Amino acid sequence: MNRHPVVRKVGRILGLALLALAVLLVDFPVFLVVLNAFKSAADFANERLLPSHLNWENFNELSRVPFGRYVVNSFIVSTGGTALALFAAVLAGYSLSRFKGRGFDAYSRLLLGVQMVPVVVTLLPLFVIFKDLHLLDSYGGMILLYGALLTPFATWIAKSFFDTIPTDLEEAAWIDGYSRTQTLMRVVAPVAAPGLVSVALLAFITAWNEYLLASVFLSSINHYTVGVGLQNFQQQLGTTNWGPVMAGATIAMLPTVGVYLLFQRYFVRGALAGAVKG
Amino acid sequence: MAGIALEQVKKVYPDGTLAVSSIDLEIDDGQFGVLVGPSGCGKTTLLRMVAGLEPITSGEIRIGGVDVSDVPARDRDIAMVFQNYALYPHMNVFDNMAFGLRRRKLPKEEITKRVDQAARSLGLETQLKRKPRQLSGGQRQRVAMGRAIVREPQAFLMDEPLSNLDAKLRAQTRAEIARIQRELNVTTIYVTHDQIEAMTLGHVVAVMNHGNLQQLAPPEMLYSQPRNVFVAGFIGSPPMNLIHAELTQGDGGVTVRFGGHELPVPTRTLNRFPELGALAGRPVVLGIRPEDMFDPACNELSGGETATLEAMVDLRESLGSVADLHFGVDARAALPEEFVAESEAIEAEREDDEVVGADARFVARVDASSAIRGPGERAVLGVRLDRLYFFDPRSGEALCHPSATTAPVAAA
Questions:
Q1: B90–A172: do the CB atoms touch at under 8 Å?
Q2: Model pTM?
Q3: pLDDT in tens, B198-245
């Protein structure tokens, strides 16, 4: 198309403006949280949209609760759950990708089926089981829960990555003298590494942001994750004092935002993995 | 190093498809064996069964006299070159070649020594630190070869290793593979659909079709003494002209007629194959190689009986030293598919309406100096009568083939 340069430029600016508007709408709550984190009590009282000055007071307020502890807890259970899910996803995803049979079909349908059951439905039975197993209010219990929660989708994405790896590569390794397991560890997984990294990142962020399970299964303040801790903090502060909670939420967002910024290209690949081959 | 023997090897897929039916095959120690056939003939399946990548349904595979039918691929001590090379993308060239040696726990110095030596012989010395994706197609192919060489295995298995290279590189690499195999003297099985590769590389060539072994013979013999219509049509380029004809007993001896043409069958041929004379009055399949026809105007023929036939040339393809003349013959072409025995047919698509046509296409390869230009030119072409091939019209088996002594030097 051979349009006038000015027309083209205007079109481009219009497009960008539309995109900016979309970003503003979608991310408005996020912006609000960050802005509120820097507002003083007076700013809140005057219903100002922007903070009058950069006010760090809210962040200091966080020292009233073991906020650092919450962050560490979140990190432990998210990392543990991710590791567990990734381990299962590599083995299961590889198997689903390479073996055919009724058992494998059934398993892959089961994975899909499990995804359709709302977590809320499973809460009560899970609670009873975890109580009997003495897994309530423990890191181990949370890691197990997150591992189970993340495994189905991690398996699906891992499978679609393994699907793209030619079987010739494995056969070459077998002929070079390696067993199937050795081949998986030394050839298939390294080649699929970019995909597996994106699986891990998606899993980690999902676990980091999880609130419902943590709020039900964690009862002592020492085990609280960031989400549960903030909720608890908000109740302590009452309904008018928003600043400190917003400060906490801002900090809680940092790992997610950081991971997204650092690994953008992996996320795109991970999101597309199921859609297109190659 | 060891010979490879296949005994009654059969492959039936779970869905009932017969991929390879009861093949007996023997490649002696140090020999270069080629499996050749059209796509889907089972040659790759057969190779993968030798490699241990595909379980066999029945039969026995022996490497160096040891039955390896149930031995997994990793313990067969064979090396394989894959069609797409299957280089490990996350390792550099050195590690790609060393990967199999590390598994065998060879000392580090030995690994380095072997890889360096192979790299030198393949001209890859400067590429050792590079990843496969940084290499050209030809270099990747050589790395795949190197990976096989350093292993010093009992046998090399190669699955169409040249099919991803351009024509010039393919000819070069073909010569290279022949050289390496000769130097290392390792038993080799090489799969290809390209009959030129088969003819130039193989000590013995196994021609396959529809999962069956058609003929196992040295290349010259496949060319001069094809066992059936399929081999006759497959080996040689351009392919042999094959046509339904009739043997008749005339006053001057036995002749073969097809589409208004009549060629005398030499007495010498009849003496060597007395059965042929007994078939007078019966249909046969006649085979004439394009290179056994000539332009009488420019060829001085030394010995051998010849005859001529008139043809309406409709296309001339000049190839520099020779030219191919295409013309129609008013008779029914003999297609290899007609002769697949019903019991062995693997979904042989026999569409009878397709073969009733009586407009066979012939190709004659003549000297480039020939003045026959076409199209639409009526020309007189010579035929070397002692080079005629005859086949049974029902089974497609050879009835008679030219004596080897009169075979031209060039095979393809």
A1: no
A2: 0.80
A3: 999 999 999 999 999 999 999 999 999 999 999 999 999 899 999 999
CB pairs under 8 A between A and B: 59
Report the chain A residue with the minimal C-alpha distance to residue B73.
Answer: A175
Q: What residues contact A215, with CB distance under 8 A and at least 6 apart?
A: A227, A228, A231
Task: Give the span between the Cα atoms of B44 and B22, in whole angstroms.
Answer: 15
What pLDDT does residue A240 have? 74
Answer yes or no: are the C-beta atoms of B9 and B59 closer than 8 Å: yes
Sign of CA pseudo-dihedral A49, A55, A56, A60: negative
Give the whole-angstrom CA distance, residue A166 versus residue A161: 11
Both structure tokens of B389: 């091939």
Check the CA dihedral B267-B272-B278-B282 and report its sign: negative
- The C-alpha of B273 sits at a distance from chain A's nearest C-alpha, in angstroms, of 49
SS3 state at A171:
helix
Which stretches within A53-101 are classed as H helix?
57-61, 67-98
Q: Which amino acid is at B237?
A: S
Categorize the per-residue pLDDT at B259 as very low, low, confident or very high, splitting at 50, 70 and 90: confident
Burial code (b: 16+ CB inside 10 Å, e: under 16) for B136-151 equals: eebbbbbbbbbbbbbb
Kindly state whether B90 is in contact with chain A, defined as any CB-CB distance less than 8 angstroms: yes
Partners of B76 on chain A (C-beta within 8 Å) are 175
- CB-based contact A199:A44 (threshold 8 Å): no
The H or E element spanning position A37 is helix A5-37
Select from B266, B263, B293, B260 the least CA-distant residue to B362. Answer: B293
Is there a contact between B362 and B334 (Cβ–Cβ < 8 Å)?
no
Contact A174 B151 (CB under 8 A): no
DSSP code for B140: H
Beta bridge partners of B27: B4
Chain A residues touching chain B at CB-CB below 8 Å = 166, 168-169, 171-179, 187, 190-191, 193
Interface test with B, best of A164, A167, A176, A188 (most B CBs within 10 A): A176
**Amino acid residing at B26:** E
Given 3-state DSSP classes, what are the helix, strand and coil percentages for chain B, each rounded to the nearest 5?
A: 30, 30, 40
Closest by Cβ to B82, choosing from A168, A179, A193: A168
CB-CB under 8 Å, B151 with A176: yes
Identity (one letter) of the amino acid at B198?
A
Confidence of residue B340 (pLDDT cuts 50, 70, 90): low
pLDDT of residue B1: 56
Would you call B86 an interface residue with chain A, using a CB distance cutoff of 8 Å? yes
Asked if residue B60 lies in contact with residue B67, where contact means CB atoms within 8 angstroms, the answer is yes
